[in-house]
Amino acid sequence: MAEANNEYSVKMDERIVAFLQEQSVMNFATSVNNQPYCASCYYAYMPGEELLVFKSDTDTKHIEDALKNNKVAGTIVPDKLIKAKIQGIQFTGVFKAGEGGFGDMAKKAYLSKFPVAGLFRGTIWIIELSKVKFTDNTLVFGKKILWER
After folding, report:
1. Number of H helices and number of E strands within the chain?
2. 65 within some domain
3. Residue 136's pLDDT is what?
4. Does residue 1 lie within any of the structural domains?
5. What CATH number should be reported for the domain holding residue 86?
6. What residues contact 18, with CB distance under 8 A and at least 6 apart?
7. Which residues form the domain of 69?
8. Cβ distance 114 to 82 under 8 Å?
9. How many CA atoms lie within 13 A of 77 on its CB side?
10. Fewer Cβ within 10 Å of end Cβ, the chain: N or C?
């Protein structure tokens, strides 16, 4: 249920889309056997699909954990913080391997944002966003814009 001073939308609000496209780094958390773990990764956002795409090695703890429990949560804050104008995303999603034709589109989206990443080893992974809460104090203090798949 939406709280006062919040907006809820079935279609992802353009303010959320713009924010996701402008930023570069997400933090996401995994949990296996009640042991949480966090990682920070560069990401690209695929609008319309509502996906976060990133590259990471299969032998990292965050990938090993996400392969065991594909429910993840995370945050995205501005690349350049302005303390008086707090903005940020909290999200939940489903972790998936970037495979097949869809994985090729995800890889293309990622490499178009981070071309140098093509020089380094790693696998393309996807987080399919389930819920997003965008806090944007540049609009009104405490303003929340909500989206759910």
Report:
1. 3, 8
2. yes
3. 85
4. no
5. 2.30.110.10
6. none
7. 6-148
8. no
9. 9
10. N
Nearest to 48 by CA among 109, 95, 117: 109
Say if 135 falls within a structural domain. yes
Domains held by the chain: number: 1
Give whole-number Cα distances, 72 to 75, 108, 109, 112, in Å: 11, 23, 21, 25
List the structure tokens of 128.
């399919």
Residue segments in the chain with a per-residue pLDDT below the cut of 70: 1-10, 139-142
Contact 94, 112 (CB under 8 A): no
Q: Among positive and negative, which fits the CA dihedral 39, 73, 66, 58?
A: negative
pLDDT by residue (tens digit) across 104-139? 999 999 999 999 988 888 999 999 999 999 998 876
- Amino acid at position 38, single letter: C
Element (H, E) at 106: helix 100-113
Contact present, 49 and 101 (Cβ < 8 Å): no
CA-based end-to-end distance of the chain: 14
Residues 69, 138: Cα–Cα separation, whole Å: 35
